[in-house]
Fold this protein.
Amino acid sequence: MQIAIGSDHRGLELKARVTKLVTDAGHQIKDFGAYTDARVDYPNIAEAVGKAVVSGTYDKGILICGTGIGMCIAANKVKGIRAALALTELMACRARQHNDANILCLGAENDDSQLMQMINAFLTCQFEGGRHQIRVDEMTKMENER
């Protein structure tokens, strides 16, 4: 699987750990920044990762900032992105199963004791479709009406 990843300056350390977990699991990673601990504006990175995922070049994305909230909000401004903030393995899996999320957002300041489980769940849980497809279609319709 091809994964686009990005973080702000506060997420650098977690991004390095996530990158190792993802590549150790056999996936390919493209890093969209940040690359140093100098302050950056996370919306630009969220947009770059979002556009890379929507284009089809990357299967999924992972975004990291201090809490994960800012990246999640910014990524969801990109048409076609369904970014989800996950704090547990269950949230990461449900984001995929019920919402067909294509970007996982993580907080560098959050408890990451379930980090490997969250990433594995996000990358392996499959969208269930069915009644959930109706809801995803409703969100897409809302997005297209903006």
Summary: Helices lie at 12-24, 42-54, 69-75, 89-99, 115-124, 131-144. The longest strand covers residues 2-7. The CA atoms of residues 19 and 29 lie 7 Å apart.
